[in-house]
Design brief:
The protein is mainly β. It is built from no helices and 25 strands. 0% of the residues lie in helices and 59% in strands.
Length: 355
Amino acid sequence: MKTARFFTIFVTALFLAAPIVAADFADENFSVKIDIITLWLSDEAGKRVGEKLTEDLSKLSQDSEITFDFTWNIPADIDSGAYTLNAEVEGEWQDAQETTTYTATSDVEIEKPDHKLYLQEVELADSSVKAGEPLYVSVTLMNIGEKDERDVKIRLDIFDLGISNEIQLTSDLLDGRDITQYLTLDIPTNAKAGEHELRVKAYNGNTEDAVTKQIIVESVIAEDLSKDVVKLDEILTPGKGNVVSLQVKNHELTTKTLTLEVESIDWGTARVDPTAVTLEAGEETVAFVYVVPNKDSAGKQSFTFVVKDGNTVLDSIDFEMTVGGESPSKLSTNILILAILAILVYFFWQRTRKE
C-alpha cells in the first residue's frame, strides 16, 4: 500500500477591489497521492472569475505534510457579492492506478469600497536620465471602486531634487475603467548624480494611491548640455567622399518608424543610409551620412541632420566643417568616422486615454 500524503491548504486571495479575504481548508485532509492542485474563484453561476492557479506536486516525497499559501489578483471590475473559492486536488487514491479528483470549496464575500483608485502600472522610458533632460513616465490608473471618480490628478515628485509635475484628468474616471497618461518631469541641469526616488501619486478628494520608483540621474559635461552645433576638425577635400556616423536612440515607450534626412547642403551632395529606421522602445541604431563637397566649395560649410516622425521634426543637429581648396585627381572615398553623436530622440508623447 502506498503511503498517502496528508496536507492542508490555506488560501489567501488578494483582492484589488476588496479587503483581503482568507479561506481556510485546514480541515480538508486528502488521503491521496497528490499530483496537481488547482484553485480558482467562481461566481454564483459557477463561472470562473480571474486567474486559475495550478501547483505541480508530483515531485514531492511521500509522508509529507504540506501547507500552501496562494495569492492572486481578482479583476478590478468584479461586482460585489458572494463567490466560491474552489480547491481541486488531482491524484491517485491509495494503491489505485486511475486518476481521481477531490474538490473543496469555501464561500467568500467581496465588498468593493465606494471610492478606490489603483495605480496598475508605472513605466519609465529609461531607468536612468541625464541631468538637464526630461524623464518620461507612463501611468496606467484604474478605478476599482463602486463610484465614478472626478477631478482626478496624477502627480510626479522627486522630493530630494525639489521637482514635481501634476496633471488633472479631463473627464471622470468611471467605475471599473482604466486610463493611461504620459507625463514628463524635467531634471535640473545641476541635479545631483546618483539614485533618487520618484513618487507617483493619483488622488482626488475621495481616495488616493501612490507608488515609488528608483531612477538614476547621470551627470553631464556642461558643454554637452547645449550642443546644438558639432564642429568637425577634419578638413574635407572637394570631390572626395567622407562619412559621418550618428547614433539614434528611441526613448519612447512604443515602437517608432523614423525618417533620416540631410538638409542645407547646396555646397555638395549628401545621402543618408539608411533613410528610414524602425526602432523598438529603448532600441538604438547607427546611421551614416555620406558627404562629397563640390569642387568650388572651399571654405566654411555646414549641413543639418534631421530626424522625423512623418512630417514632424523630432530632433536635428547642425554640423560645421571646413572644405579645402584642392580637388583630387580622381574621385575616391575617404571613409572617416568624423563623429559619433548620440542623438537623443525624445518623441512627442501622445495625450490619449484608454477608456
